[in-house]
Design a protein that fits this description.
The structure is a single chain. It is elongated, with a radius of gyration of 36 Å. The protein folds into three domains: about 70 residues, no CATH class; about 120 residues, Cytochrome c-like domain (Cytochrome Bc1 Complex, Chain D, domain 2); about 80 residues, Cytochrome c-like domain (Cytochrome Bc1 Complex, Chain D, domain 2, Orthogonal Bundle). It is mainly alpha-helical. A hairpin with a 2-residue loop joins β1 and β2. It has eleven helices and two strands; from the N terminus they run ββααααααααααα. It has a two-stranded antiparallel sheet with strand order 1-2. Helices cover about 45% and strands about 5% of the residues. One of its GO terms (biological process) is proton transmembrane transport. It is found in: Cell inner membrane. Pfam families: Cytochrome_CBB3, FixP_N.
């Protein structure tokens, strides 16, 4: 029997092993720590037997309990779909006033509309619904509406679209290309642009002579749609010109370009893709952004 060797500085027995004069102390792990380690090993073995765990060529071992996280997710999605289907049926069958009178339906409709907006509308109108003057996508947060900003008006626009070839009832308006068609010459277009700038109170306005000449051109060519004072006409989709909100930009150059050869934006008819409930939810969400009438 070998003699025990005690490390003098620590007073702990050594194992008899040493490296470069450094002795290995015999300090066994605490019993409680070992028991926990053994328990985790046993738990891991039991888990591997009961649940899917060991990857094979085509799939993991199924486990004795037959548990599947995918099945859990599918079941949860089925449950949510069933709940939503019931609420969607109510929304589809009720008027906007009846939906607004029901706090649960109203909140659900707004949240569902926000989800649908993120899926189908942000590509043009932006994640914050601010639109883009560069491409003529309307800002849905302000109170300027080409075709009306009530929930019913918004629903109609969403349903049938604007200049959409997929729906015979699509919103449609036509602004003549006054320059491209030779209806107005360059000087007349320049004058009417100055006059329109004065209607909106733009900082670029100030050429009184051009504005006076432009007023005559405007009265003869533009007032029938945009109104005598530039107030617009929602029944024909003619924008209001007497405020600083613009669809394609409000600088002198932007207005000249639009009068000369106007842009004609297109919005899909969402009746082709979305059911009544989803379109109602979208209308409620857009109306809730703050610019609805």
């Amino acid at each position: 029997m070998s003699e025990k060797i005690i490390d003098e500085p620590t007073g702990v027995e050594t194992t008899g092993h040493s490296w470069d004069g450094i002795a290995e102390l015999n300090n066994p792990l605490p019993r409680w720590w070992l028991y926990i380690m053994y328990a985790t090993i046993v738990f891991a073995i039991v888990y591997m037997i009961l649940y899917p765990s060991v990857p094979l060529i085509n799939q993991a071992t199924p486990g004795l309990l037959g548990y599947s996280s995918r099945a859990d997710v599918e079941g949860e999605l089925t449950r949510v779909a069933a709940t939503r289907a019931e609420l969607d049926q109510q929304i589809a069958s009720l008027s906007f006033q009846e939906i607004a009178a029901n706090p649960t339906l109203s909140d659900y409709a707004r949240r569902s509309g926000a989800s649908a907006f993120k899926m189908a509308c942000v590509q043009c109108h932006g994640s914050g619904a601010a639109g883009s003057q560069q491409y003529g996508y309307p800002n849905l947060n302000d109170d300027d509406w080409l075709w009306g900003g009530s929930i019913e008006d918004i629903f109609t626009t969403i349903t049938h679209g604007v200049r959409s070839e997929d729906d015979a009832d699509a919103r449609s308006s036509l602004m003549p290309a006054f320059g491209a068609m030779g209806m107005l010459n360059r000087n007349q277009i320049s004058d009417v642009a100055h006059y329109v700038l004065s209607l909106s109170g733009s900082d670029e306005a100030g050429d009184a002579e051009a504005e006076a000449r432009g007023a005559e051109v405007y009265t003869a060519q533009c007032a029938v749609c945009h109104g005598v004072n530039g107030e617009g006409n929602q029944s024909v989709g003619a924008p209001r010109l007497s405020d600083p909100i613009w669809l394609y930009g409000g600088t002198y150059e932007d207005i000249v370009r639009q009068v000369s050869n106007p842009h004609m934006g297109v919005m899909p008819a969402w009746s082709v893709r979305f059911d009544d409930a989803t379109r109602k939810e979208l209308a409620i969400f857009v109306h809730s952004l703050g610019g609805g009438q």
